[in-house]
Amino acid sequence: MSQTLTALMTRLTWQNNELSIHLQAAEDESRIVMQQILELEHTINQSCITSMSINPELEINKLNFLTQQQEKKDELVMILKNHQALEAKLKDKLLRIKTEIKMLEQYMEREQDASRQHQIKSQEGALEEWVLQNRKSV
């Protein structure tokens, strides 16, 4: 049974490490996407500055550019939401795995304590038996 528990503990630890790596990668991707969104927002805000004279062709081009930038931003926002959903799932799985590891460690500790107590009692019993045998011989 101890080998089974050790194997389970090893598997849970491995899963914990794998999930941590995936979570870190997802968080990094989210940061990158968020930075891209901020850069696009800055570009959009800079493009909204109007000039004194109105040139229809220039305004149409500007509007097209703003529309494209806003569409890119919307796509990035959707990607960011997907990354955040993935992060939430990974964090939930990671929490579950950590809880399982902690429960397994506590179980193993209780089993070791029970084994130690049993060993101590058997040693005490053997010692008492030895003492009784030595008293009879004396």
UniProtKB/TrEMBL annotation:
Coiled coil: 9-43
Keywords: Coiled coil
Domain of life, per lineage: Bacteria
Protein name in UniProt: Flagellar FliJ protein
Provenance organism: Legionella moravica
Lineage: Bacteria, Pseudomonadati, Pseudomonadota, Gammaproteobacteria, Legionellales
